[in-house]
């Protein structure tokens, strides 16, 4: 479906732009000095939304920031904050966390997550549900290898045990495609290129869904939208424009996004390697009945063959190959994605 993409200037002038990042007030927040004794300290920024007994940690992917989870943060940590506590963090290299120039690895980034969990006191056995997407899913694999007994569940979305681009492209071709995200080009072209990797054209062209927006009147601990007369949050014209606005905000927020941080994270993704034996051992210790793996057939960023291999290696209790799903269901089908997670959290709660 062809559609006219707005310019960056048009989107920044849109009345919804000032509130593209929702004012969801965390119940707790802070900065952990992680990585002591392993090249640190590295400051990791974190927030907890909600104060319920079911504890979730959401681990974002390449170039993502805490607010990339805001649809899940709102649902679990605010709409259902009496039931859930949701920990989100900026991985090293992005957002409000440090961006040291170093060789990043998924195991080191996982150790950062564990340092945050230790800091907030989420240390009991079978206490935390870990959800990771893309690079965050690779980090989540390493978290599960490091502290398997502390996981109540593990959900891996659109990720891989080792990147394979499929028969059409070599890993080198795929790596260069990702490096292309930071090769100098117009801001608008870079965001448009990324959007096509993450989403279908049909979804990008569709109207932004006002039903998913928070409201300071009905969403607990939600501040008013700046610039609107009644404080209500406004929709953009299309899904693409909302994604474009989020990217523009991220790239224009001082220090949030740097080429150095992006490339360091990219190197971590490129170097991720988990063998079948390593993943089987992890699954044995976590418990296969506690693991869900989800991948879409329309994923243009990490092809579905990667998810199929991960399912083959892990043999999870739930393995979903979802027809037509792209790389970021947390954004393009959040109501479905949240409902699948919630259903599984309820099932896993029965395992103790």
Automatic annotation (TrEMBL):
Which key words tag this protein in UniProt?
A: Hydrolase
Please give the start and end residues of each transmembrane region: none
The family database entries (Pfam families) matched by this protein are listed as: Abhydrolase_1 (PF00561)
Listed Gene3D superfamilies: alpha/beta hydrolase (3.40.50.1820)
One function term, GO molecular function aspect: hydrolase activity
Q: What is this protein called?
A: Alpha/beta-hydrolase
Superkingdom of the source species? Eukaryota
The upper taxonomy is: Eukaryota, Fungi, Dikarya, Ascomycota, Pezizomycotina
């Amino acid at each position: 479906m062809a559609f006219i993409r707005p310019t960056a200037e048009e989107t920044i002038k849109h009345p919804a732009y000032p509130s593209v990042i929702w004012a969801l007030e965390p119940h707790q927040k802070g900065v952990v000095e992680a990585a002591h004794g392993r090249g640190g300290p590295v400051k990791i920024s974190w927030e907890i939304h909600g104060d319920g007994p079911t504890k979730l940690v959401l681990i974002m992917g390449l170039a993502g920031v805490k607010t990339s989870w805001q649809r899940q943060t709102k649902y679990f940590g605010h709409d259902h904050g009496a039931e859930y506590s949701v920990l989100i963090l900026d991985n090293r290299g992005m957002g409000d966390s440090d961006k040291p120039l170093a060789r990043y690895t998924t195991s080191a980034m996982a150790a950062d997550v564990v340092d945050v969990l230790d800091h907030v006191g989420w240390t009991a056995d079978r206490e935390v549900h870990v959800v990771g997407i893309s690079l965050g899913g690779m980090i989540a694999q390493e978290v599960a290898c490091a502290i398997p007994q502390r996981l109540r569940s593990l959900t891996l979305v659109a990720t891989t045990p080792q990147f394979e681009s499929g028969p059409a492209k070599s890993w080198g071709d795929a790596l260069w495609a990702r490096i292309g995200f930071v090769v100098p080009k117009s801001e608008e072209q870079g965001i448009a290129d990324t959007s096509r990797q993450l989403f279908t054209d049909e979804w990008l062209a569709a109207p932004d869904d006002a039903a998913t927006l928070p409201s300071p009147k009905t969403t607990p601990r939600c501040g008013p939208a700046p610039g609107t007369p009644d404080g209500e949050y406004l929709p953009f014209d299309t899904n693409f424009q909302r994604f474009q606005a989020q990217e523009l905000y991220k790239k224009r927020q001082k220090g949030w996004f740097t080429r150095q941080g992006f490339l360091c994270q990219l190197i971590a993704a490129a170097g991720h390697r988990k063998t079948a034996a390593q993943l089987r051992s992890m699954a044995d210790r976590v418990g296969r009945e506690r693991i869900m793996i989800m991948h879409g057939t329309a994923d243009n960023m990490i092809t579905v063959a990667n998810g199929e291999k991960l399912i083959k290696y892990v043999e999870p209790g739930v393995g979903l190959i979802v027809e037509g799903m792209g790389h970021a269901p947390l954004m393009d089908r959040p109501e479905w994605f949240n409902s699948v997670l919630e259903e599984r959290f309820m099932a896993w709660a029965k395992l103790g």
